[in-house]
Amino acid sequence: MDLGIAGRWALVCAASKGLGLGCARALVREGANVVIAARGEDALDRAVRELQALPGARKVIGVVADITTVDGRQAALAACPQVDILVNNAGGPPAGDFRQFTRDDWIAALDANMLAPIELIRATVDGMIERGFGRVVNITSSSVKAPIDILGLSNGARSGLTGFVAGLARKTVAHNVTLNNLLPGQFDTDRLRGNFAYLAQQQGIDAGQLAERKRTHIPAGRFGTADEFGAACAFLCSAHAGYITGQNLLIDGGAYPGTF
């Protein structure tokens, strides 16, 4: 299927690895010009080279930027001639017992996983409306649907973003500008391995054993891959997805047991 986004400009945040890179790969394969932002220069350079080597790649630009800061967001936006597609993503806050979280911990989580995406949406949505096309995809977490006890910071901040998006998405869709959220379950990423390491330490067991135990509880029998996540993102960014807005798409291999 031709997704109809060849030549569009996409800004993908935290895209030097993991799910962000998976989304960038999918968009590059569809002929979009892609700007990727990340904090680590070495990983970013590797990602840019990988994306540029993909068949049919157009413009691929890397920006060293921390999108949780004003300067970082400005740098990322300045590198993108126009933002037709915005993929919001940021590293999740640390796991832990909520009793140990300080006010600064909460503010940092809100800045990264709620307020930074909102600021990027604010900076780009009016231009999308004027041009009659825009796609915003926020990478959140399955914890929005089914809270994870050790991820209290993430549960709170990402749920706040979800509530904000639900309202705005109904105002922009008449202009062919959609906003949706992708909720990853357990994907084979550094973030997942970090969470397993934390849990294994708390339980006094081997992280590999814990990972295997978690895997067996997923109906699909495996962890997700960044490329299949990216493919879902690319479809939501496509010309065919103009009637999908304000939605939370859970991608978890069937792990969530509910009907709704």
TrEMBL record:
Coiled-coil stretches: none
Source organism per UniProt: Stenotrophomonas nematodicola
The protein, known as: SDR family oxidoreductase
Similarity field: Belongs to the short-chain dehydrogenases/reductases (SDR) family.
Classification via PANTHER family: 3-OXOACYL-(ACYL-CARRIER-PROTEIN) REDUCTASE (PTHR42879), NADPH-DEPENDENT REDUCTASE BACG (PTHR42879:SF6)
